[in-house]
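User: We ran a pulldown and think these components assemble together. Before we commit to crystallization trials, I'd like a predicted model of the whole complex to look at. Sequences follow.
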Amino acid sequence: MSEPVPLEIAEALRDARNRTLPFGRPVHYFHEIDSTNAVASEMAERGAPEGTTVMASSQTAGRGRLGREWYSPADAGLYVSLVCRNRSAAPLLTLAGGLAVAEGVRAATGLPVEIKWPNDIMVPAGSASSHRRKLAGVLAEASSGSDGLQYVVLGFGVNLRAAAYPPAIVRQATSLEMELGRAVDAGRLLVEILAAFAGRFAELAGGGREAVLDRWRALAPSATGARVEWAAVGGRCEGTTAGVDCSGALLISTAGGMERIISGEVTVVYQ
Ligand code: BTN
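Assistant: Here's a predicted model for the assembly, 271 residues in total across the polymer chains.
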């Protein structure tokens, strides 16, 4: 059973309804749940419509990419999942999700975040840190049946304020408050992310991929010309990034030819 949406979030969503639809209505809010992606998937299985939005103040089993945990303490982040059903939008949804989070953070806070393939949202090295740090992440989980794709749940987590991050991520993680030195309006941030996502989603649903890919490329400098490493079946590989193709796969130029990476983790050695 969901709970009332906090007033500042409800008001922000209501005022911006025309920019965020179909997302942000209805919103199911929970003080604490296992994972907003898990709950949104259960709702989608029961027929929840496109745009259904699940939010939580904390998650006890937040899911990250590649089977990792997404650390989700109370009131320290934005933890949100969206039900998407449009089949035309599905192939590039994960890239569009990362792009929307980056665009939303930029619009709401002015922080010049970048995307690291496929959809890690990073704060570049600067005055606050000598290395770039991860601010947010996106996890898209699809469900298919005998007649094809049923739905995709697009979940995103944004670190709002500093928390007692586990040792494994403490060096890489950052939050908006740590970067900006001030509190952030969570309602405004949510609205800007949903509005950006609604716009990108409409472009994809209408068959337009190029605008999404072009903007994604512009915000992902390490996807071109960066020295990277990654783990493959035969061991560690290295090469130089050469952009993303029209399906969102990362292209890497290596001594043995061009590699096309569709999933996994790529480490930027230098850029
Ligand atoms: C990543 O590993 O970078 C992806 C993290 C995605 C975390 C979000 S938080 C809201 C939604 N619910 C989940 O369980 N995971 C996603």
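DSSP finds eight helices and twelve strands in the chain. That may be worth checking against your pulldown data before setting up trials.

User: Thanks, that helps.
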